[in-house]
Design goal:
Elements lengths: L9 E5 L2 E5 H11 L9 H19 L13 E5 L19 H5 L3 H10 L5
Parallel strand pairs: 2-3
Antiparallel strand pairs: 1-2
Helix pairs in contact: 1-2, 2-4
C-alpha cells in the first residue's frame, strides 16, 4: 500500500477523515484557476473547493488514509477566517453560480486541465 501524500493545506485526522485549511487552499486554487482577487465569486469559490476535494481524493486513493470499506471520505474545511467571512460564498456575487461549478461538472474540467489528469 502506498503512503498518502497530502497537500500542505491538508492533514489527516483519521483514515477517511481529512481536514483542509480554507485560508491556504482557496488562495492556492484560485491562483491555479487564474482568478484575480477582484473576480472572486461563488462560482470560482466552488470550483476551488471542488478542486481541493479532488486533490484529497487522489492523494488518499489506495493508501492507509482510505476510508474503511463501505465508508465515506469525510473532508472537513477549517476556516480560521470564519469571523471575517473571507471565504463564505454568501459574501460574494453569484457569478455563473455554484451549480455550474458542480452539477455542470465545470470544476472537474478545470481540475483535469490544471492537474493534467486524462479523465476523471
Amino acid at each position: 500500500m502506498k503512503t498518502a501524500q497530502l497537500p500542505a493545506w491538508a492533514k489527516a485526522l483519521a483514515p477517511g477523515k481529512i481536514e483542509i485549511q480554507a485560508s491556504v487552499f482557496y488562495p492556492e486554487w484560485l491562483a491555479l484557476l487564474g482568478v484575480a482577487e477582484k473576480d472572486i465569486n461563488q462560482y470560482w469559490l466552488e470550483c476551488a473547493f471542488q478542486c481541493a476535494k479532488m486533490d484529497i481524493q487522489f492523494a488518499v486513493a489506495g493508501t492507509e488514509l482510505m476510508p474503511s470499506p463501505g465508508g465515506a471520505l469525510v473532508i472537513l474545511v477549517k476556516d480560521d477566517d470564519k469571523v471575517t467571512g473571507r471565504w463564505a460564498q454568501k459574501n460574494y456575487p453569484e457569478g455563473k453560480g455554484v451549480d455550474a461549478a458542480t452539477r455542470g461538472k465545470e470544476a472537474r474540467e478545470h481540475y483535469r486541465r490544471i492537474r493534467q489528469v486524462p479523465s476523471i
